[in-house]
Amino acid sequence: MSDIIENIQSALKELKVSTWEISDTTTDQWEFYFIKHRLDQNRAVRTRHTEVTVYRDMGEGMLGSASMEIPQGSFPKEIKENIAGLLEEAAYAVNPQYKLHGPEDQAEYSDEKGKDGISGESGAAENQISVKELAGTLIEAMNDLPETSTEYMNSYEIFARKVSRKYMNSLGLDLEETYPGATMELVVNARDENREIELYRLPSFGSCSAEELKEYVGQLLEFGKDRLKAEPTPELGKATLLLSTEDACRVYEYFLSQMNAANVYRNLSTWEIGRSIDKEGTFIQPLTIRQMKNLEGSPENHLFDGEGGKVKERVLLEKNVPRRYWGSRQYCSYLGIEDGSEVYNYQVEGGTRTSEELREEDYLEVVEFSSFEVDPLTGDIAGEIRLGYWHHQGQTDIVSGGSVSGSLPQLMEGLAVSSEEKRFGTALIPEVTMIHNITVTGIGK
């Protein structure tokens, strides 16, 4: 056990804090900074963050709490002073009481300890991938791209890491896990005789094949080339929007938000367990969304969440019917959910039509927004178009400018998804997501 955790526990004991949580995360990261394909600098970095939460019984069924990160290198006296300060602060942040995960939860993990030889924790086999192996795959792939003199990498950065997490609480729960992850910062340039533009991406991986990354960057290079050819987006009024990039995840994050226990408890969501969101029976697509414990390629395959809740595969939405809420221990407890957890990975089940079949109608496919947002509470949609493809009457126009807008709750009945699926970070979603009757404001005829 590390000195900082020992010192925190000693301070908690001395101050007679009966209910507490400690989260400790150490990240070993390899960082590579490339200008074009020349390595400008690289470094290895280790960071550690240790957070403590104290709880205070305020009587009459109320519980106070306060949290802080304890600076690394703190002396025992400083740690004790910080925790004493938290006890005072806890009196001003009061909520109805709830119980932390305890020994009964610990038993659920016992069968998985030592599984796949991964520090006694996460069960995904790919969590055994080393930082060196992951970084090597990414660097190798970036050295073999379909670049040209007019479409090329401006710069890229690679951050490959191994993360070790530890969670402990006053009820005896003591958990650990280790998992890999990587983030890349990609800047692609495209130019012609008149101008030069940049495209930016920030993909994340838990594992990644060289071919997968080359395909991803190759598509980005094509987008750059097409952006230079784009004409002003016409005034389309109501049209069908097709999403085939990570922006589609914003749509499904709205659905997840409506099933978040905190939003339900606060009456920010009206979705009810067992009651279909398709109240009139008019939706063209029944949606099923699952919480996934392990998702191949995800950088967030976890055994437990930040409060020691066991991460499991759970059906959240089944054919438009909410089946269970998810979220923090506090709000799950308020709703009577004893085995809930945060959602890290999720899957949206594909539909009955293929991507090719969905593409038979007229649609605007937008692959590059300045930003694409779906408000997680209201479902309001807004996005400025940087690059799109307007498919109509058997022809395709490359367009840029203008915007899309609408209200997802009003447009859900016209939502259609492909049978094929694709992973983006922590999400496995349909390869194609279509929203009918969205408003497209153009800047040209």
From TrEMBL:
Domain of life: Bacteria
A Gene Ontology biological process term: proteolysis
GO MF entry, a single one: metallopeptidase activity
Coiled coil: none
Record's GO cellular component terms: cytosol
Pfam families, A to Z: PmbA_TldD_3rd (PF19289)
Transmembrane segments: none
Region (Disordered): 102-124
SUPFAM superfamilies xref list: Putative modulator of DNA gyrase, PmbA/TldD
Signal peptide: none
Protein name: TldD/PmbA family protein
Organism: Baileyella intestinalis
Lineage summary: Bacteria, Bacillati, Bacillota, Clostridia, Peptostreptococcales
